[in-house]
Each structure stands twice: as structure tokens, then as C-alpha cells.
Amino acid sequence: MAMAGFYRRLLPSPPAIDFASPEGKQLFVEAIQNGTMEGFYRLISYFQTQSEPAYCGLASLSMVLNSLAIDPGRKWKGPWRWFDESMLDCCEPLEKVKAKGISFGKVVCLAHCAGAKVEAYRTNHCNIDDFRKHLVRCSTSDDCHMISSYHRGTFKQTGTGHFSPIGGYHAERDMALILDVARFKYPPHWVPLTLLWEAMDSIDEATGQHRGFMLISRPHTEPGMLYTLSCRHESWLGIAKYLVDDVPLLLKSEDLKDVHALLSVIFSSLPSDFGEFIKWVAEVRRQDDGGKSLSQEEKGRLAVKGEVLKQVQETGLFKHVAEFLYSANSCCKNMPIVSQKDDLPQIAASVCCQGAEILAGKSSSSGGYCCRETCVKCLEATEEKSVTLVSGTVVNGRSEQGLDVLVPSSQTKPSCCGHGPSSCIRMYPAGNDVITALLLALPPKTWSGIKEGKLSQEIASLVSTQNLPVLLQEEVLHLRRQLYLLKRCQENKVEEDLGSPLT
Q: How many other CB atoms are found less than 10 A from the CB of residue 343?
């Protein structure tokens, strides 16, 4: 019996010019000589074919993120951290993308959540001259790459909406090189820039919004090193709404006199499963991969995380949060999600199970993993610093494997509000600093409705990002942008308000 199928498509030419054709090669050589192919070399080094017919947006983004050498912060397979389409699942379920593709706004959201700096433009918020200027900018450097969202029909190609990175520009002929990630269908090809603009200047029927392009670059410092917001858990929809919409209304409606009363209003109305929304990032490795020593890379990452943790604990807001949580847990039992004291072995056991699932290539918990035992110890990172390492044995059916969790920590002297001994102790991320980071990340307008003038001034000083050290400032602003995008997702408005750059 015959089996129906397709083996590639004939590239309609004109209007496109096959990259590997004699004319395409000539365009390539001339563009190199004119210096407008600088971004091509990194892109071509990580060029990939989309693994699913509807994964063009995910393939384009993972290709660009790897080209920019952005660390995903979690492992892909074995000990390797690497962006793959299967890891880009925080803003849209992969099954939904596989069935229906992904929108322009959701790709922007994914790029940001992955740690990139993003400038997104829809064609109804800019013009062709702006597009050409940005294309030249990306083509003459290797630290910025462009992803275009366009309609294939404009090029007489089969299919509709599509994403692909732009690999270069030929100024004299005014042509752009599309590195088509659907390589099973069409090869890389040159197209007239005016025609590419026309293909982008079309309406995505799924969203009713114009298509466009985005510029993706590497941030000056790695954001999201210690804290991240999660939209994997079903509760994130309600929590995002609570933080952005409900908290300002609550603060405006209450007659608050001090910071303790303000925190009480916020925490007493927290949605259930709040603890699933903001996480601190632990690193998991197989014991066979790491042994008893830390690599220079691991030492460097843990040093940065430890410094961020230290900077959080040195803020004035942290002291208020710690005091409130201590008093709340001393006099009532209904705030387990904001406990200022977390059980490290229990947390590590959970992280070990999650790590085992990730290393096994599973994106969600199957419930088949359990951590049989954990052991907490210290490893020397440098002559002055040590890190906390939690070893665990994870069991899944008849198989078991040993995993290590590398925990960021900071040595600090607690205040007199009941943290523990008066001497310096080693502290790892816990409820008090995690919540402090989230409160710092709330939009500034959150606090604008506070009636009491003195309290309003005090809060403004406590939450001001201008007073924060650079590392913590980057961390907080990254969380704030994450919260903004997640809130737009909650409102189904992530496709809007992207006409101006999202930076």
C-alpha cells in the first residue's frame, strides 16, 4: 500500500533566491565584504530544524538563545545545559504549541523568561525604514539577532504564519537572508526586504494582531540567577492577578499605619499554593558527574547566587518581612506558605525528584520518583567560602540514582527578631528572602494608594530599585518584567502592548 508524504518543496524563485544557488552565493560573498553578515556566523553554528511542524517559533528561539550563549540554568540531557524546543514550555503548553503553533506575543514572553533582552515590534507600530535600520544593526554585529514573524503566502510558499531568524542583509540589493528553520521544507533563502515587510505586515487570524519582528540580545548580566516566577502550576493565573490588581486595591482600602500592618493585609489574603509561584533556583547534578569537587563554572554561578541572596538579606524590607513572618508563625498556624523557616532536606528531596525527572527527559512530574534519603554537608568553593551540598538517592521503581543539589547560601548575622543564635550563621534561600524579592518586584504603582503619608514615604524607600546593588537590581527588574508578561497572559492580552520595545 502506498504511503502519502512530502519530501521538501520547490522554493518559489522568484521572489526568493536559494542561498546555495550561484546567485545566492554571490549575494552572500558581497554581503560579507560589506560587513552585513556578522551575525550569520553564530547563527549558522547553532542552526537547527524544527522538530515538529508547528515548532517554528520554538526552534527559532532556541537557536538564537544558544547563539547568544545564554545559560538556560537547567539541564537538557545528561549533564548538559542547552536550549531545546522541549524546554521552552513556560508560557504555553507544548501540546498546545504542537497542535496550533505559537503566537508572536508568546514567543516574546518565552524569550524574556529564558533570560534574554527583547525588543519586540509589530508592523503597525513602526515602518519599513525602522525595520531596515534594526536589520542593519543586527547584521553588523554578533550580539543581537532578529526573529521575523511573517506569512509565507507573500513569497508564494505553501503554509501560512511562520517564524525564522534573519541571518544577514545585502544592502545594495536590499535583500534579507531567511534561515528557515523548516529545513525539511525550504532551504535558507534571500528575499527582497520590501517583500519581507509585506509578509510581516499581515494579520495573525488567531490573535487579530499584526505580525512583526523581535530583536534578541544577551543582557549585560545574567538575570534570574536565584529567583524565578513559575507559570507551570495552575494557580499562577490567580496569583498574578492578586499581586498586580488586588494588592493595590487592598492597600488603598485599608487605613494602614505601619509596615507590619501593610504586610499583614498582603499575606492574610494570599491565594492558596502561593509557594508554587515564586521559586529559588537550585542546581541539580548526578553524583557521578560532579564527584566531591566543584567545577569553576559551578563555583562562579554559586558565588553570584550567594551574593544576590546576601544583598536581599541586607535590604531594609527583608528585616520587616523576617520580623513579620517570625511573629506570624509564633502566634498563628495559618501561614504555612510564608513560613520564614524552610526544611532544607525536605526541599532538597523534592528538588532531587524534579531533577531526576528533568534528567530523564520528562517535563512534568509523573509521581513515580521518591527521594529515599538526603545528607547535608558543606563543600569548599574558595578559601573564604563554602557551599551547601545536599546529596540524595532518588528511587523510581527498581532503579535508583544519586543526585546532588547545590544550594546557594550566604553567611550573615541575623537580627534580634528570633532568627536563631546571635552569631553568624549560614543561610540559604527561604520564605523570608523569597517573598522579599517578590515584593521588591511588584510594580511601583502597587504602593501609590497608601493613605498614611509617613508610611507611603517609608515603603517608597524600602521598595525603590534605585537604592539596590546592581546584581539585586537586575534580579528584581527581571522578576518585574516576568510578572508583567504573566499578568498579560492571564488577561489574554500578551498579544497587545508589544508595539514598543519590551526591554
A: 10
